[in-house]
Every structure is written in structure tokens, then in C-alpha cells.
Amino acid sequence: MKNIADNRKARHDYFVLETIEAGIALTGTEVKSARLGRVNLQDAYASFSQGELYIQHLHISPYEQGNRMNVDPYRRRKLLLHRSELDAIVGRMRERGMTVVPLRMYFTDRGLCKLELGVCRGKKLYDKREDLKERDAKREMERALKGRRHSLGAN
Prior knowledge:
two-stranded antiparallel sheet, 35% helix, alpha+beta, seven-stranded antiparallel sheet, single chain, 4 helices, 2 domains
């Protein structure tokens, strides 16, 4: 799998409860631009309308050699899921405070473009602070252990 883009902000702003792999309907120039890594997942989210799931605010830069074949970079794109998966996701989205956001975009070994979607619940400010404290504490422990290993190896 070749990773195209990661949405690191999503893991900071949301609790990811489950992940789902979904295909995405793209035009030819969008695929070429994605292969060059010109994708931004930052503010993207999934919405349900007309019996289908769509990804919105997913920015794929226009392909430079695409001329008139280029489309709107922020256009709404259809997500390709089985009906049972779609029904399960929509059921989770209807719960209070739940949303579906893309976590990463990648190409499979067969050359298919996929999105890893996360069914998420928003974090409060104090949750974000706790995560930062935990990360800092873990980093300090790693530093202390690394220093200790170096001093033990020198003797």
C-alpha cells in the first residue's frame, strides 16, 4: 500500500471508535494528482444524502497537465461501500455526536484508491489536554530509559 495523505488532525480532535475501508469515485486527473500526493484531508467529512455516502471538503489539487479535464478541487465525491456497510455507518452517524471523517488515503497493491474512514466522537478540550500530558509523560520515560541504556552499555 502506498500512503497518499494522513489526517493527523482527526486523531487529535476525535476519538476514533472504528475504522472502515471505502473506495472513492475519482476522475482520471484526480487520480493522477493523488499519485503525486497533492491531497488534503484536513477538513474533510462524510455526509449521507440520496441513499449514498459522500465525502465533502476533500481537497485534491488540479492536475497541472489536466487543462479542461480538471474538476473542482472541493467537489463532493461518492464513497464506494457495500449496502450493509453503508447502513451500519449511517446508523452510527445518527447517534448523537458521531461523525465520519477520513483518516488516510492510499493506493492498494492493485492500484485502487481507498480511504480509511473513522467513525468518531469529538473530543472536548480537557480530553485533548490529557492526551498531550500522556504523550509528554511517555516521551520523558523514553528519554530516561534511553539515557539509562547508554550508561549501562558504557560500563
